[in-house]
Amino acid sequence: MEKDKKLYRVTKKEKGLFKCGHCLFTTDSRGKMLQHHNPSSPFYCKKRRKDYEKPRVKGNLNVIYLAAGVCQRLRPLTYKTNKCLVQIGEKTLIEHFLDGIAEWPDIAGVHIVIGHCAEQIKKKIGSRYKGISIKYLYNPFYSVTGAAQSLWLAKDVFNKNKCLIVEGDHFMDKRLLQKLAGSPYENCLLVDDSEELEFAEETIVIGAGGIVNKLAWDSSGNLGYIKSDIPKPLIIGEAVFVIKLGKDASRVFSAELEQYLLEEGPSKKEIPEVLNRTFKICDTQYISTEGLPWIEIDFPKDLDRARNEIYPRIFNKK
Asked: 176-216, pLDDT tens digit by residue?
């Protein structure tokens, strides 16, 4: 009953009749009232939706959220849905991220690059989320291209503009996002230096003195050579793929991305190579996660860990 009071109020005159506390909607069905108060439902309260979608003061930071891929490694779960729509706790992966940046005052808008199950994402998130403008960029070749090609669709968004580039498979404590928001550095990325590296699936940050030299990454998951080729003090930790770039770095990144996509190579091109070229021109600071929880969800075991270990740590459920 306590939960019911938070969602709607019961009229005293007609016992068992549920009445919306915001509009004139009345029903004897608890299920219909729950739908009436669910922002993702087509029956959502129009008065509350107006408040929920109220535009906010526009900032100057563009967020690019990559969610076009087919998510093969999470199959069969992702045969009929996108990875960013998997449920963790009470919300989907993408909703957790949007909640994490909702309080940033300088957000200009979020641009979601979609492909696999695109309409599901659009239906779930809509055109505005907690006052943040949401726009979509569709990659029709999502099944045969990589993240670099998807990111190219947002070229006009990040070129010469401050931006935040996010892989759509990360689940993290919102305090990590706040670290980037509050950082005095124009160009920065998060690095987890609290866990022992496996030198397999990770994207590893190589750097010194707080500055990133390069990202070490291998599509085959073979990074063992790093242990012998690179001095241990320069191996900082695993990159968390949420990267903030200032105007100058965004301009350089845009030019390097264009050049990279014109070169011969694999049909699926990824982002680390473009970032490494950008790091050579623009100093980029690495910021420690300081042990705050996060996870990249690639495999079913990662999703299980996100639900059973990371989520409880973030929301203090244990």
From this structure: 988 888 888 999 999 988 877 666 667 888 888 889 888 88
For residue 52, give every residue at least 6 positions away whose Cβ sits within 8 Å of its Cβ, in sequence order, or none. 39, 128, 130
Whole-number Å distance between alpha carbons of 13 and 231: 76
Q: Which numeric CATH code is attached to 61-314?
A: 3.90.550.10
Please tell me the total number of residues recorded for the chain in this structure.
318
| Residue ranges, CATH 3.90.550.10, the chain | 61-314
- ∠ Cα 180 186 189 (to 5°): 45
DSSP per position, 141-190:
TTTT--HHHHHHTTHHHHTTSEEEEEETTEEE-HHHHHHHHH-S-SSEEE
Could you report how far apart the first and last alpha carbons of the chain are, in Å?
24
Whether the upstream peptide bond of residue 76 has omega within 30° of 0, thus cis, is yes
